[in-house]
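We include the pair:
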Amino acid sequence: METVQIVLEKELLQATDRVAKQLKRNRSALVRDAIREHLRRLEIRAQEERDRAGYLAKPQTPDEVHMWEGVAAWPED
């Protein structure tokens, strides 16, 4: 691991310490997990954007849509 220095607003630091205490974790572990989660969400968002761009570049034809309607399983209410 590497040691880094970051600057946080006082309120953010206090909130971080409060949550870390509630979770019985240290501040560093909480910040590491928060960064990992944020990076994971950014990657998901990027993948969704790539998928969206792909579907916009080559939209499905009406025949393709109807083909999948018979296969789709919708939950019972």
Remarks:
- The chain is about 70% helix and 0% strand.
- The first helix runs from residue 10 to 22.
- The helical segments are 10-22, 27-57, 62-69.
- Residues 50 and 61 are 20 Å apart (CA to CA).
